[in-house]
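Hi everyone,

Forwarding the result from last night's run.
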Amino acid sequence: MSKPVFDMISVGDATLDIFIFVSEASVMCSVDRTACLLCFNYADKIPIERLDRSVAGNAANNAVGSARLGLNTSFYSIIGDDETGHSVTETMKKEKVSLEHLRLDKKHPSNYSVVLNYRGERTILTHSEPRTYEAPHLVHSEWVYYTAIGKNHERLERDIVKHVKRTDTKLAYNPGSSQLREGLKRLLPTFAATNVLFLNKEEAQLLVGKQGTMSALLRALQEQGPEMVVVTDGPRGSSVFDGRKMYSMGVFPVKVVEMTGAGDAFATAFIAALHYGRPVTEALRWGAANAASVVTKIGPQAGLLRLPELKRWLKRYASVKPRELKTG
C-alpha cells in the first residue's frame, strides 16, 4: 500500500453561520426536562444583542481543527460561486487546508445557517441547497472524516465506503441530522466500515432507543458495526467503547459563551490523538480540551486549538481524567 497523501480528508457540507444572540426569550421544558422549547412572543419584534458570522459546517470545522493540530488535511465539499463560497475557500487557504477535493456549483448558492443563541445554548435553523454529490477521486489518506451532508448523497456514501475498504483508510463517521433521519437500517453499511462513530446522546438514543445506562447504550451502538463508539453528553462529558473497555470522563470546567461546534471540536481532537498514537483515554482528554476551548468563543472555529495550546489545556486540567465503566 502506498504512503497516504493526506492524514485527513474531511467530507461534508460547508455553510455560512449567522450567530444571533437574544435575551428576550423563554424556555419551556417537559417535567423530566428531556424535551425543551425555545419560545418567542408570536408576531413580536425581537431585539438582538449581537450578530456574528463564520464559515462553518461539521466537515469544515473538522478540516480547520485537524490542520491546526498538525494533520495534513484536505476538504471535500460543494460550494456556491458566491461570497460565502469565496469565504470558505479563503478560510481553507488561510488554515493551510488543501482544496484538491473542493468542488464549485455555479447553479446554486452556498448553504447557510442561522444560530439562535440564548443563555449559552443554541438552536440552529439550516438551509441546504440541492446538490449532486458526485464522488471525487479521493487520494489515499490515513483518515476520512465523513459527516453532515445534504440529500442525494447515497452515491458519494457508497464510494466512500468502497474507498476506505480498498485503501485500508480509517473512517470516522459523525452523521448529520439528514442522515440520522434515514434511520438505523440505512446507516448500517456505513457503520460496518466505520472505525470511530461519533454521536451525541440524543442521536444515539434516536438510533437504538433508550438503553438505560451509558454502558448499555455504547454496547448497543457498537453491535451495529462500528469498531469504536464515542457518545458525547453535553455538560456531562463523554464516553467511549473500543470493543474491549469503556471509559467516561467529565468536561473541563470553563465559562460557556456559545456551544456551536463543541461536538466537532471534540471529535477532531479525539481523532488527532489517535493519529499521534495516543491511547483512547488520552484521546478523550484531547477532545475535552478542544471542546472546552471552543465553547469559550463565538462560533465553531475561533477556539479550535493548535498543538502547543492543547498541551497547555491538558496540563491546566490534569485532574480531569477518564474513569473505566463496567461493560456488563
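Residues 280-294 form the longest helix (15 residues).

Cheers,
N.
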